[in-house]
Design goal:
Number of strands: 13
Helix content: 25-40%
Oligomer: single chain
CATH topology of the largest domain: Alkaline Phosphatase, subunit A
Number of helices: 15
Radius of gyration: 22 Å
Mean pLDDT: 95
Low-confidence stretches: none
Number of domains: 2
CATH architecture of the largest domain: 3-Layer(aba) Sandwich
CATH class of the largest domain: Alpha Beta
Strand content: 15-25%
């Protein structure tokens, strides 16, 4: 039985809800997307509760599920994933956080959680913070994409069970609290780091220049998603496949690396609206030559959903479709193509929701159902029915002739 290669394209947050002002349609139903529709038309479709029905997925837990891991068992927090994506090797006992560069006023009220979606100067800001010593705890700090960054606290007696300082709204910065007696030191050190970050960054040249240009300064760091390193069985060890990932967002790159994917830095893959779709397509095709599975993540639909911008989301979908069309022209017909999302980010909600996402899978000898369009409602009538995210990888491996026999 011949093994088939797998190309998995995850359109981050692309799934949506009907919008009354657009004839009760979703962005997927409005967009012109011949390549996506071809995958649905030539294969089998269904819908997927990425974590479980009624559960709102985070991007981190969602991707763990899509890769076939139980997020309830292996997930401790987003920080270690972000650290892996940033290329920071964690030690046992480290506590890692995902962070935002943010803008606060003199009263420590958050005015902009993304510091105007800062794009330049973050490396210099990070350099001003990394290496700081807070008692016997070392600060390791590295910039991510746009306003994102990673914080690792390294020292004796640390524990990841602390509350967040990020209020997730325009309100005062919170004080971290220990959620267990073992985490009291971590909470104390974290609060000191946040205070010191405000002192250091407020006086930094990058921010004085931004202020002169009328831009919000990135004058504080807001850590969240505390976690400690967790050993995962890699996809190679678990499923016997060689795999690679193409992504621009630090979080997703970190997840790819944690599950054992080759994850090159692709020039132009920013993780933002300006990502180079052509570069992603070229990288995926190159990686497919030497890997059994290639995973491609595109973050842009999620950004448009969070911004509540219907038209932008439609345009992003059409951009992804052009990328997918490029890949479909060059992939062998025996490659299994998987098209789905990690969660829904409806423009009416401006955040992740519990709505299931569409999934379509096609290949040369795949079963073909009656679905002809790739969108939320069309996929719901497909032969795959309604599944959970953890079911996707076993289904895909089975369709690719890579599953082991159970029994004699």
């Amino acid at each position: 039985m011949k093994h088939r290669k797998i190309l998995m394209v995850v359109c981050d947050g692309v799934s949506d809800r009907p919008v009354k002002e657009h004839d009760g349609k979703t962005p997927l139903q409005v967009a012109r997307k011949p390549a996506m529709d071809a995958v649905a038309r030539n294969g089998v479709s269904g819908t997927m509760d990425v974590i479980a029905p009624g559960v709102v997925p985070g991007s981190d837990t969602a991707h763990l599920a899509l890769f076939g891991y139980d997020p309830y068992r292996v997930y401790t927090g987003r920080g270690p994933i972000e650290a892996a994506g940033a290329g920071i090797a964690l030690h046992k006992g480290d506590v890692a956080f995902r962070c935002n560069f943010a803008h606060v006023n003199d009263s420590m009220k958050v005015l902009d959680r993304r510091a105007g979606r800062i794009r330049s100067g973050t490396a210099a800001l990070a350099q001003a913070l990394t290496g700081m010593m807070l008692g016997d705890v070392e600060v390791i700090f590295k910039e991510g994409s746009e306003h994102r960054a990673v914080l690792v606290l390294r020292g004796p007696g640390l524990d990841h069970r602390v509350s967040e300082v990020d209020p997730h709204s325009e309100s005062a910065v919170l004080e971290a609290r220990a959620l267990s007696s073992e985490a009291e030191k971590t909470a104390r050190v974290l609060n000191e780091f946040v205070r010191r970050s405000n002192e250091v960054l407020s006086a930094h040249q990058v921010n004085t220049e931004r202020a002169a240009e009328g831009l919000p300064s990135a004058n504080i760091v807001l850590p969240r998603g505390a976690g400690s390193v967790s050993e995962l069985t890699t996809l190679s060890e678990r499923d016997g496949i060689r795999c690679a990932g193409v992504a621009g967002v630090t979080l997703v790159k970190g997840l790819c690396r944690l599950v054992g994917m080759e994850t090159p830095d692709v020039r132009g893959a920013t993780g933002g609206l300006d990502t180079d779709y052509g570069a992603k397509a070229e990288a995926a095709l190159r990686l497919l030559d030497r890997n059994d599975l290639v995973f491609v993540n595109v973050k842009a639909p999620d950004i448009a959903g969070h911004d509540g911008d219907f038209r932008l989301k439609v345009q992003v979908i059409e951009n992804i479709d052009a990328m997918l069309g490029t890949m479909l022209k060059d992939v062998h017909e025996e490659v299994l193509v998987v098209l789905t999302a990690d969660h829904s980010t409806p423009v009416s909600v401006r955040d992740h929701s519990a709505d299931p996402v569409p999934v379509s899978i096609s290949g040369s000898d795949s079963r073909v159902d009656e679905v002809r369009l790739y969108d939320e409602m069309s996929a719901a009538s497909g032969a795959l029915g309604r599944m959970r995210g953890m079911d996707l990888m076993p289904i895909v491996l089975g369709m690719a002739n890579r599953s082991s026999k159970f029994g004699a």
